[in-house]
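Course assignment 3, question 2. Fill in each field.
Student: A.L.
Task: Predict the tertiary structure for the chain below.
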Amino acid sequence: SINPLPSAISRVSFSGDYGAIATQDRFIYIINSQGKIISHFPSNSRWIDSLSLSGNLLTATDNDLTLWDKRGDTQANLTDDYPFSASLVTPDSQSLWTGNRQGMVKKWNLQTNHPKLQETLAAHPNQRIIYLAITPDQKLLATTSEQGEINLYDLQTLTPIYSLEKSSSPVNGLTFSPDSQQLAIVFGDGTIKLINIAQKLPI
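Answer field:
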């Protein structure tokens, strides 16, 4: 456990032995596996739509996107044609994936001095992207929109694999299992659904 923070928690993300916590007073805290705060810094954001920690890199979106290292040093700032609404860094820290408020998903190369756009995917046209997830083996990408659509894609080709039926309850989060075989979906009514990736069936 960690000591109480001075403001309510709005977003969390974990990677290996570290976690990132965003609070409603727009600060970001980096903690280790013992719950000790190792760094904290202001996000300089009006709000935080998404937070993603992977390796040494952390991203947050609030229409624009900021990329930091775990010490809080800014590595890059990004803007797009439409406001960002979701983001994540791949497990190998080589690529950044973003979603925007027009349903576009984009891949950015992080191996250059400044993130360089590589791919664009029309995942949920005219809908806000709210969550992105990538399997630990970096083979699949999952996207979800504000209207509850959830799509899975081949990460290398961006070919659609299948879409899940909409739920009457909004999606509050999604993540893949460590073995990349299951997708967990959290809904606003408190239910969690596990999907077997290979069989495309609920567990």
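Instructor remarks: The two ends are 31 Å apart (CA to CA). Residues 27 and 42 are 4 Å apart (CA to CA).
Grade: pending
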